[in-house]
Amino acid sequence: MSLMRAAALGRARLAGASRLPVVAGSRNSSFIPSTSEEWEAAGYEVSKKNGAPKIPSPWNRWFPYEPVPFSPKLGPYKVTVEKDRVYHWCSCGEACTQPFCDNVGCKDTKFKPVAYIPRQTETVSFCGSKHSPSKPLFNGTCWIVWADVNTLPAAGILFGGSFVFGAALTWMMHP
What we know:
Keywords: Membrane, Transmembrane, Transmembrane helix. The chain is of the alpha+beta class and about 180 residues long.
């Protein structure tokens, strides 16, 4: 038996022995709230229209008088758009038809729908956290908001990535 095959068999046995039972309704991570009740318990204001939490970005912490949108998703919405069709992106985060406005969520708020007209038929990433300066397109601001809310997992990911990068760079540069 080869060493790689033995290691794979050992890992499979360990994974089978230590596997925890899966509970119905459980989520993948203990750090990230998944329901509106969990977001409220964590101290965030939650939309009554769609249950999205109001998460301030680092920008909103420096400028507290800027309006804070609700963030229905801490990541991009990937949508296939058609050329020359007008899409209205929801900037308040309260529409039930995310990422597009349903003309109900933005009423009585300081936010207005943002029109987007694609130049060609393609798949576009729309911002889910509603904090992107390149509205309505996704530019990575959602990940900064996610890292601000989930400090420990973000620190772990950054440490692991830095460690792997440092080990690989040391291995490549060592004479």
